[in-house]
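Sample 3 of the quickstart, ligand WT7:
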Amino acid sequence: MKVEALPAIKGNYNLQDYEETYKTFDWKETEKSFSWSETGKVNMAYEAIDRHAESFRKNKIALYYRNDSRKEKYTFKELKELTNKAGNVLKSYGDVEKGDRVFIFMPRSPEFYFAALGAIKLGAIVGPLFEAFMEGAVKDRLEDSEAKVLVTTPDLLYRVPVDQLPALKTIFIVGTDVEEDGKYVDFLKHLEDAPSSLDIEWVDRNDGLILHYTSGSTGKPKGVLHVHNAMIQHYQTAKWVLDLQEEDIYWCTADPGWVTGTSYGMFGPWLTGTSNVIIGGRFSPDAWYKTIEEFGVTVWYSAPTSFRMLMGAGDEVIKKYNLSTLRHILSVGEPLNPEVIRWGRKVFNHRIHDTWWMTETGAHLICNYPSMEIKPGSMGKPIPGVEAAIVDDQGNVLPPNRMGNLAIKRGWPSMMHTIWNNQAKYDSYFFPNGWYVSGDSAYMDEDGYFWFQGRVDDVIMTAGERVGPFEVESKLLEHPAVAEAGVIGKPDPVRGEIIKAFVALMDGYEESDELKEDIRQFVKKGFAAHAAPREIEFRDKLPKTRSGKIMRRVLKAWELDLPVGDLSTMED
Ligand code: WT7
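Result:
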C-alpha cells in the first residue's frame, strides 16, 4: 500500500538517529540511571516518588486530580508522605508483607495511588481491578491470586463475595462513616493517624510488583505478573516515546485497572519526575477538552476509540477550548486509523503517534517517535533494545511484506515474569528458539515499519478493552434460558469491535427482544458492562466441532458474509 509519510518533528531525546541508536543501544545504559544498579536492591515506589521528594522536585506537583466533586493536587513530597502512611496502614491493620497480593478495587482517585504505592513500598504485589467489574469477574481474580488484602469503597463492596474467598483476610474501606468490624478496616481514618515515615522493603529486581489479569481466547483470565525490573523500560520509553520533559503536564486517559494506566499512568511519568494528571468520572468530549485546557496538558496518551468518539463529536466543540499547550499526542490499544491521524493533524495540528505493546510485554515495544517519519496506519518500528520480526508458525523469520505472527526476541526488561500459578501457560508464549509470540498478525515493510493486520486468536478488542470470548460465553451459559453460546468481535467504526453473541435457547423459551435484553443485563450485572454483548442473535443450533467446541470462526464468517473455510471438524 502506498501511503504518504508524515515528516519527523524534533524529539527531545536522542532517537534522532534511530538507526545508529538501534545498533548501539544496550539496556545496561538505562540501568545506570538508577542507584540500585549497583546494590541490586530496589523498590519501584522509591524510584517513582521518594527519589524526587528528596530532590529539587520535592515541591513539584506530582499528581493533579479532578472528578465531579473533587479537585486536588499533591507534590512529590506530599505523595511520599501519603504513600508512607498508606504503607503503615496496610502493614498495621492488614499485616501486609513482601509478596502478599494486595488488590485495589475502586474508581480512579488519589487514594488508589496512595494504596498502590504504599503496598509496593512494603514489597507487596498490587492487583488493580477495573471499577466496572461485577461479582464474577472480581471473584475469579481474587481467588486465583489468593489476595490477602483488598482496598475498596462502600459502593463496590457488594460485588465482593467475601465468604467465598478464604484467603482474603482484611478489607480496607475507603469512604466516610465506615463501620469497623472484624476484617473490615476504615482506610481513611487510619491514614490520617498513621506515621509519615516508613521503612521501605528493598526487593530484588525480579520480585513481584504488579499483577494484571487479562483475557485470552480460552479459559479464565490469567494473571500477568510484572516485576520491579520493568522500571528500566518504563523509564526509557517515557523519555523516548512519551518524550517527557521537566516542564510537561502529562495526561494518560487509561484506567489503572488496565496496564496502560499503570505502566504509563503511574510508573513511566513518575519515574521521570513528571506532573501527572488523573481524571475520574465519565468520558465526554467537553470534559476531555476542558481537562487539556484546565491543566495545560502538553503530552496526551489515549486510545483510538476515544479519538474516534472525539472525532464523531465534531470540530465545533474543539473551538470552545484552548488546546494550545498540547505538543505531543499518542495512542495505544487498537489499530489507529489513518483517518484519525489526518483528523488529529487538522484539529490539533499534531501527529498522533501510535504505540504497540501488550499487557504481557509491560511496556512499549513498537512505536512512532517524535523524531521519526510516520506512515499513517503503521505501528512504527521497534524501540532500540527490542528485536521484532514476523515469523511463521514454526518460528522462522519471514522476509519483508509477508504476513505472519508478530514476534519479539525474548529478553526485554519489562517482559512479564510469569503467569500467576500457570508456568505452562507462560512457556506456551515462546517458540523454542526464543521468540515471544504476541497473538497478533502483522507484516513489516521494506523500511522496517510494522503494520497490524489482526489477532491470530479469537480475542476481542472492544473500545480498547480486551475481552476473552470464553468468559462471556461462560457467563451467558449461566443464564437459565441459554443452552449454547458463541461470542465474536464484530467490526465497528467507533469501538473497533463490538461483542456479538449467538445464542441457542433452552427448550421452552421463546425468542423475544425482552429476552435478549434480559440476557444482556445478566452479563452486564454478573460480569462487566464492557463485556456485555451489544448484539445478540438467536439460532436454533450453533456450529460445533465433533468434540463440542463452538466454532467461532464459522460464526464470524456468517456474520461478515465470508467463506466459512474448512468444515471437516464440524459435527453434522
Ligand atoms: C492487544 C493487547 C498495552 C496497552 C493496551 C492493550 C492490540 C495494542 C495496538 C496498536 C493495533 C494494538 C493488539 C495486542 N493492540 N496496541 N497500536 N495497534 N493493535 O493491551 O489489553 O494487553 O491488548 O491490543 O491486538 O495484542 P492488551
